[in-house]
Each structure stands twice: as C-alpha cells, then as structure tokens.
C-alpha cells in the first residue's frame, strides 16, 4: 500500500482569500445595490506595457517560421535575458553578479517554494511575522517545521521574528540560531522595508552564524528611498550567504505572463559544496525553461522604452499608495508602508481585531482589504490595503473611508 507525504496533512487550511471571497459574495448578494471596491488581493491591474507587447508579438511571429522557431529553452535561461538582467539589475548597481549566476524561472513563487529542496531537512528556518505564506508552507511540506499549534498559529520548529510597529517592522536577530532566514524586502504584507546598513547587519549575522538568507526582492522596483538596497548583493559579503529571488510580476505586470529569476552566487558554499551547482542540477532536472516568448518579453523590460513605460506604471501605483496613506492619516489612522512598496499597513482603530475591521470596512464603506492576522499572529490588529487598483477606485475608496 502506498503512503502519502504525511507532511501535507499537517498544513492548516489556507482560508484567508477564500474567506474574504465568501464574505464579499454574501454581502453583495444581500446588498445588490452597493458597489464594492477591492483593495485586497495583491494582483496588478495595469495592462502589459506597449514595448513589452511589441517584443512578445515579434517572438510569437518567430515561432511561426522554421528558421526562427525556438524549442526547449536552455534550462537556466536564454543568454540575452541573463545578460540584460546582470547589466541592469546588478552591474549598474555595482554588484558583482555574473550572467551564469542567474537562473531564469517562471516566477518567484515557484522559486521561493522550490529553493528549500537543496537544503537539509534538519535546517531550522526563521521567518518574519507577518509573512508571505509560501516560505512556511513549502517547508511544512518538506517536514522541516515541527508541529502546528492552532492556538498560537505557530509551528514548533520555526523561528518567528515579529515585525510590528514596536520594532518599526525591522526584524531582530532571533535568540535561537537559524540555518535559513527568509527576508522579503520591501515587505509584503507590511509595505515597510529596512535600510541598506540594517540589511548589511543581517548579512554579517548570517555569515557569522553560518546561515543562508533567502532574499525575496519581488518589490524592488517600488523602492523610492536612497538608503534602501535594491539587491542584497549591494551588501558586503552577501555572495557567501545569500540567494536572491526576483520576479517580473510586480514591476512589469507579469502575474499572468510568468517570469522570474533566482541568483545563486558561485561563492555560496556549504562545507565546500557549491549551492550554485546544486540549484543548476535541480533546475535542469525539474524545469524545462521559461518560454522563449516570455523571455523576449522579459528582455524588453530592460529596453529604453520598456524602462520608461514601467517607471510610469510603478509611479501610477505609487500615486495610489500615497493617496491611500495620506487619506488614512487624515482620517486619523496610524499607517505604515506605502513609500517603498505598493502596500499600506494600517493599525485597526479602537482595538478591533483584523477581521472585525474587515467586516466594518466592508459593511460601512464597501471597501475590501486583507486582515493582517491572515499573514501571521503578529499581523493581528493590522490591515493591508493595496495600491494595485485603479486611481479612480482608490480615490473613491478613500472618500468612503474618510466619511465613516
Ligand atoms: C507577488 C510576490 C511574488 C511574486 O511571485 P511570482 O510567482 O513571481 O508572481 C514573490 N514574493 C512575494 C512576497 C510576492 O508578494
């Protein structure tokens, strides 16, 4: 008789977005005359920029002719894309990353879930709390997290690093020493980030204790402050302790197109074993390359026209973020984030729980957001609004909130 991977049985149901959808559906069927504005889910809404669409069209046409047809892509990505990535995301920022240290993939969610495969089952992970759920869940599936306590909503073998207003959303070095540290900066869900010198302290810490940092830079394009690192490799010593994950989803609207990459420096070793070689082996065995058409689209992200158009797109969302932030502050809320990330993280008023505030906002303002407690116990008492809506809807939502 076969057996299943019992670790999957340990996973608590992920009810966050389905509960939100159910509550919104129930409210709207009871109140069909109300128009609901959704500032909840972290998906982009602006269309793909023209320079990218043009590149995709061209690549589609190439696929229709024998002379320019492309079959399987190289496992680790086309040279044209890896070069564009290295030149623009690394060399231009003074980071010494080479094209053969870039592994092109179908997105950062898969990479952040898959990367744990090359590490021992006995490693102890540390995560920020609140957190992007993939880091923890993928480690649960691998049997690395111990047992789940529904009361505390915590795993016995995970080190949690609370990020709250009390510590300015800057994770502190944990008391117990972790082996793998997940950092997402700028952060989803809190919309906050840390300075380059604070990140340098984490790099120094990881090198000192022999931990690896899994650095999720999905929101890098939204950084507006000059003292924030665009890559962890801007920090000295990061090449020997950090893996960086990047995505084209939030900077270029590729949530439905699918493209990302992971950087594993050759200098990253564990007892002489190269993690670069291990990830190359894993990638080559289990992944057959991101589509040619999509990699051409990715290349266009770095073209002059592409860069200009995407700068406008990011500015559009960040104008929404500023609108939400200023509007909420005016209405008396305590607000965080929204400066280097498209998320606003607000303190719920009057000691409301995250879900109480969700219901209050849905019923009284017809605005949908995301309860902070859905991202971890330290998210309780907070609430996330996203800047990914249209400007018109964002303004309208804030008018409603101000009038409460
Ligand atoms: C949106 C997001 C990603 C991007 O995932 P893709 O699979 O590339 O779309 C990665 N990490 C975080 C924290 C995100 O919010």
Automatic annotation (TrEMBL):
InterPro entries, per database record: Aminotransferase_I/II_large (IPR004839), DapL/ALD1 (IPR019942), PyrdxlP-dep_Trfase (IPR015424), PyrdxlP-dep_Trfase_major (IPR015421), PyrdxlP-dep_Trfase_small (IPR015422)
Sample GO molecular function, one term: L,L-diaminopimelate aminotransferase activity
Pathway membership, UniProt: Amino-acid biosynthesis; L-lysine biosynthesis via DAP pathway; LL-2,6-diaminopimelate from (S)-tetrahydrodipicolinate (aminotransferase route): step 1/1
Keyword vocabulary terms for this entry: Aminotransferase, Pyridoxal phosphate, Transferase
Aminotransferase class I/classII large domain span: 35-401
Positions of substrate binding: 15, 42, 109, 132, 188, 288, 384
Positions with a binding annotation for pyridoxal 5'-phosphate: 72, 108-109, 132, 188, 219, 247-249, 258, 288
Enzyme nomenclature, EC number: 2.6.1.83
Residues with the N6-(pyridoxal phosphate)lysine modification: 250
An annotated GO BP: lysine biosynthetic process via diaminopimelate, diaminopimelate-aminotransferase pathway
UniProt KW Cell membrane keyword: no
Names of the cofactor(s): pyridoxal 5'-phosphate
Catalytic activity reported: (2S,6S)-2,6-diaminopimelate + 2-oxoglutarate = (S)-2,3,4,5-tetrahydrodipicolinate + L-glutamate + H2O + H(+)
Coiled coil segments of this chain: none
Enzyme class, broadest EC rank: transferase
Function comment: Involved in the synthesis of meso-diaminopimelate (m-DAP or DL-DAP), required for both lysine and peptidoglycan biosynthesis. Catalyzes the direct conversion of tetrahydrodipicolinate to LL-diaminopimelate.
Oligomer and partners: Homodimer.
Protein name: LL-diaminopimelate aminotransferase
Species of provenance: Roseburia zhanii
């Amino acid at each position: 008789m076969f057996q299943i991977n019992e670790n999957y049985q340990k996973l608590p149901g992920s009810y966050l977005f389905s509960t939100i959808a159910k509550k919104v559906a129930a409210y709207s069927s009871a109140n069909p005359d109300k128009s609901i504005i959704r500032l909840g889910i972290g998906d982009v809404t602006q269309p793909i920029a023209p320079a990218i669409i043009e590149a995709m069209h061209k690549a589609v046409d190439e696929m229709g002719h024998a002379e320019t047809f492309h079959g399987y892509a190289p496992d680790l990505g086309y040279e044209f894309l890896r070069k564009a990535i290295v030149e623009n995301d690394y060399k231009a920022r003074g980071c010494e990353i080479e094209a053969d240290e870039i592994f092109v993939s179908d997105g950062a969610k898969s990479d952040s879930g898959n990367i744990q495969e090359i590490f021992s089952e006995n490693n102890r992970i540390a995560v920020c709390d609140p957190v992007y759920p993939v880091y923890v869940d993928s480690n649960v599936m691998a049997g690395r997290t111990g047992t789940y306590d529904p009361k505390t909503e915590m795993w016995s073998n995970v080190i949690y690093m609370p990020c709250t207003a009390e510590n300015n959303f800057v994770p502190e070095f944990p008391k117990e020493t972790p082996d793998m540290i997940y950092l997402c900066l700028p952060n989803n869900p809190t919309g906050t980030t840390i300075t380059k010198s604070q990140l340098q302290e984490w790099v120094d810490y990881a090198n000192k204790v022999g931990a690896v940092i899994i650095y999720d830079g999905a929101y890098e394009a939204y950084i507006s402050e000059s003292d924030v690192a665009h890559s962890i490799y801007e920090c000295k010593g990061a090449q020997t302790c950090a893996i960086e994950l990047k995505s084209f989803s939030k900077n270029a609207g590729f949530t439905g197109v699918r493209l990302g990459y992971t950087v594993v420096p050759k200098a990253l070793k564990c007892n002489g074993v190269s993690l670069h070689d291990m990830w190359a082996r894993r990638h080559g065995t289990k992944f057959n390359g991101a589509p040619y058409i999509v990699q051409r689209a990715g290349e266009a992200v770095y073209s002059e026209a592409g860069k200009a158009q995407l700068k406008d797109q990011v500015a559009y969302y960040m104008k929404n973020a500023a609108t939400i932030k200023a509007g909420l502050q005016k209405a008396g809320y305590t607000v965080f984030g929204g400066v280097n990330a498209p998320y606003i993280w607000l303190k719920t008023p009057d000691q409301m729980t995250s879900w109480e505030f969700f219901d209050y906002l849905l019923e009284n303002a017809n605005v949908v957001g995301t309860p902070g407690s859905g991202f971890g116990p330290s998210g309780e008492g907070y609430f996330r609004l996203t800047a990914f809506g249209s400007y018109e809807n964002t303004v309208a939502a804030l008018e409603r909130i101000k009038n409460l």
